[in-house]
Design brief:
Length: about 400
């Protein structure tokens, strides 16, 4: 079975896609990543999306328009990926699993009460002729979970080897928000959102009229700036960091006005490079504190933050006791891990298997995730039900370039 997984993360810069083949064999299921790509949002849509994110007030009209526009761009990106995947000589895809774009994650008193991802799946189904699984977080929240992170279903597979070697292994994702999964032999895996990874850095860089990228390319601003210790201590006092796990967060808390409020309290006119250097240190410190407290000694890193050498070097400096490696080392490209994870969740749901890890999200039990939009003019596909998760092995494969 081939599944196309797709997501736009909390950096809301574009759509990441992975086409993954799941093949039954004598040992369980062998997984091959056949094709990956990333498609930027059109500039107009990205600006509309950025302007609508918390704390901006929006009406149902804006939500409806964005749901359609994001769905159309997801559909176009999926159709292009399917063409390129087919031209590379791979077989047909059976299912699309679309995370969509998170626009609000409702947290009150430490509980997740709801979550909203936009990107109307009917547009994706119409553009590709394939069934689409979407709305992937709601079932976990309804079961008492945080609805996040959902990547532990992949992380627990990738980290099993290290855990079997009596290591305490972790998988760190540095997207807009930093999250981690921790696996150790004989223990239930745990996972949580640590705090901002790129979210605050991207926010201040995007708001600066003199920068074009919308992010700190190659960590150049952080390298050119000086950490402001007073501002850093203010930021580190954020109560979220002291909350017990499982926990989740997003741009409902960590957004541009959050930084501006702290800068106003600081009462100093800091250069952009100094602000970025301080926010980069904030990410490194909060990540290192969480990893150290969890006792992790072997860490896989993925997400856009891996391409920021200042951030990655600083995390490694703060964690001398841990071996830090990119997820590429275990066969999953660091830029594509979340898209691969949602392809895996799509395969799990198609086989009647839970896609959440209750010990990671806090849900009362495993849940089959998502709801299915059928292919145009086709009935719902028949269910394929497995009794339990088989052994899943990722194998090296030739794949199309991003």
């Amino acid at each position: 079975m081939r599944v196309l997984g797709m997501i736009s993360g909390t950096s809301h810069d574009g759509i990441d896609i992975a086409v993954v083949d799941f093949a039954d064999d004598a040992d369980g299921v062998t997984v091959a990543i056949e094709y990956t790509t990333s498609t930027p949002y059109s500039p107009g849509l990205r600006e509309r999306l950025r302007a609508a994110l918390p704390p901006a007030p929006v009406g149902f009209d804006v939500a409806c328009e964005l749901d359609t526009l994001i769905g159309q761009e997801f559909g176009a990106a999926a159709a292009a990926a399917l063409r390129a995947h087919g031209e590379a000589g791979f077989g047909p895809v059976d299912l699309i699993c679309s995370h969509g774009q998170t626009v609000f994650h409702w947290i009150a008193d430490g509980r997740a009460l709801g979550t909203l991802q936009l990107g109307q799946p009917a547009w994706i189904a119409e553009a590709t002729g394939l069934p689409v699984l979407s709305d992937l977080r709601a079932a976990d929240i309804a079961a008492g979970g945080q609805g996040a992170p959902l990547v532990p279903i992949l992380d627990t597979i990738l980290l099993t080897g290290a855990a079997e070697e009596s290591r305490r292994a972790g998988a760190l994702n540095l997207g807009g928000i930093a999250n981690v999964t921790v696996v150790s032999s004989g223990e239930e895996p745990v996972a949580w959102d640590i705090g901002p990874a790129n979210a605050l850095i991207d926010a201040v860089v995007t708001a600066d009229a003199g920068t074009a990228d919308g992010f700190d390319r190659d960590g150049r601003l952080a390298a050119a700036g000086t950490v402001d210790d007073v501002l850093l201590e203010q930021l580190l006092a954020e109560p979220y960091y002291a909350l017990p796990t499982p926990k989740s967060t997003g741009k409902e808390l960590f957004h541009l006005d959050y930084v501006r409020d702290h800068l106003a309290r600081r009462g100093a006119d800091l250069a952009l490079a100094d602000v970025v250097a301080t926010l980069t240190e904030l990410t490194a410190r909060t990540v290192a504190d969480a990893i150290r407290a969890a006792g992790v000694d072997w860490l896989l890193a993925s997400g856009g933050g891996v391409r920021n050498p200042v951030l990655l070097r600083r995390i490694a400096e703060l964690l001398p006791e841990a071996e830090v490696r990119p997820s590429d080392a275990v066969g999953v490209p660091s830029d594509d891990k979340e898209a691969v994870a949602f392809a895996l969740i799509g395969w799990a749901s198609a086989n009647g298997l839970p896609g959440n890890v209750p010990s990671c999200t806090g849900a009362s039990g495993g849940r089959v995730l998502g709801r299915l939009s059928p292919a145009p003019g086709a009935p719902l596909p028949p269910a394929a039900v497995r009794d339990a998760w088989p052994r899943v092995t990722f194998r090296p494969s030739e794949r199309g370039a991003r």
